[in-house]
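Lab channel / #folding
Pinned by the channel admin:
"Please post every new chain as: sequence first, then the structure tokens as a reply. Keep commentary short and put observations after the output so the thread stays searchable."

First post following the new format, from NK:
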Amino acid sequence: MRGLQSPRYIPPAMKPACSYAATHAASLADPGAFWLAQAHHLHWDTRPTEPLSQDANGTYRWFRGGELNTSFLCLDYHVQNGRADQPALLYDSPVTHTQRTYTYAELLDMTARFAGGLREIGVGLGDRVIIYMPNTPEAVVAMLACARLGAVHSVVFGGFAAHELAVRIDDAQPRAIVCASGGVEFDRVIPYKPLVDEAIAQAAFKPAHVVVFQRDFVTAELQPGRDLDYQELLRAAPVPAVPVPATHPLYILYTSGTTGRPKGVVRDHGGHAVALHFSMRAIYAMEPGDVIFTGSDIGWAVGSSYIVYGPLLRGCTTVLFEGKPVRTPDAGTFWRIVEQYRVRVMFTAPTAIRAIKKEDPEGLLAKKYDLSSLRHLFLAGERCDPATYQWAQHLLGVPVVDHWWQTESGWPMLATLVGLEGMPAPRAGSAGHPVPGYDVHILDEAGHPVPPGTTGLVAVKLPLPPGCFPTLWNDDARYQAYLSTFPGYYLSGDGGYRDHEGYTYIMGRVDDVINVAGHRLSTGEIEEILAAHPAVAECAVLGIADPLRGQVPVGLVVLKDGQTIGEEALEKELIAAVRAQIGALACFRAVLVVKRLPKTRSGKILRKTLRQLADGETFPMPPTIDDPLILDEIRAGLQRRSIGAAFETNPAA
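Reply from TO:
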């Protein structure tokens, strides 16, 4: 077991910048040698004996035989190597009017003490802990404290419905739940503790303890014998980090499953640390001490990887933001953060940029701030339409990098790697080129490569690089389903194509490809056309059932603030644009103007739910939806326009 003051360790010197082409080629030619070299940049208690191996079921595992601890790499290592007084975490919460700075030394002290408190209540190696909290420093401390003990944390977005939390409790079977007393959504306080109590009542498995972080604006009642105050655990004596095998689980992150039962994506200590450390250098060109602002939530893969672990592994300063891109207090909040903290890299979802664009279409609020520190804007989480991409690039005057990855991968699969030389420039509409370690292919339904320019299924040749999920929690059968469609490949579930210059374009989930009278059309392609209209802030295209053609596309559009164009006139212009760029075969003839689009809390549009609504299907309320009332408004609009099978669409129209 490592003490808090273990001997100083200095990793090998960083190599000079090298070319993207050579780096990517080396990563595919000998994956084991390539990633073992990257692993040497980190501190290991025991160096791995084999970089790449396989389990009995054929699953690939990285760095078997090695031992390390992610919490040590994120905190102790930097404190011991000259960064004790450097800011590690900048907490900015406009919804609670709070700003605080935590140095590496302060964050280490809190983490070591909270880990001591968890140990006192019985949390140890391999135990699970669910963290049900908003973006607060106390949540980050809980994550790092679990890692410190070798416990497995599972962050669940604060405010998730009780039933969904209960499902996760039964699956993870946590020894403890760490929660906040409540959170804030714009101007609305959401008490969390009643949701936790209800979830535990519903769950078959009962956690031994609930640890509650009491917030100033809402106080939770504690159940004697089970519930504990977060501050009490912080008073415990600090404990050292526990070296764990590289293959030991670090966390479980639940993502939606096609059966309705969530899939618990597992991330391990070793591969995760190596991959994220590499990505901070190669993809984001972040140096120790640089400031990164990731506008996401720690309950999502982006937040876990690039609010918490990636920046801290690299010795950077990370901004932890509790709020929204708009209305907290306005659409200039992100730009204020860039100026105030001298942010070098900003990372958010395209939906956040579209929300800002909707409320401030001319970008006037951005002009109030000094954005000269910003070097790159990275976008991920959903496909970025070219209109939004170009708006952001014109506004900020820096490269905008759309890149593609999934919860399962944990870090980018396609990107423009700004930390490597010879990298082709980013291009609107494209997610870039394969990241080292990823051998990305576009296949047809028989598993054969398709020619450039042809849309197909996006798959990654095995082995997947470090950082990707080695399994699903207690669900090997569903894990193998990712690998069984095309033997030797991971099937991403997304469709896309590669152009003649090697740029890859992700067009959305495979089920977002619609079939109109035998013609396969991408809803993403139609959305590009709609989003290019000067009045449109954001849009979604869904394919709805049609008795004559199988499916027909319908556009839902949100107007920019201040637009006065009538719905009929806008519909004519958008129909004409689709006809001009795709042709009459698209059968695009219906547009509905809506106030908002239904989205998950991470900003993804709920296209499947919209399609089910229009087709008159019965569907459960999505647990991740940010505002269920939006669906009622859209249902009323579809009914008013007689759009969809549920509202007597005329098939001959």
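NK: Confidence is low (pLDDT under 50) at residues 1-16, 648-653.
TO: also worth noting, The domain at 517-647 is CATH 3.30.300.30 (GMP Synthetase; Chain A, domain 3).
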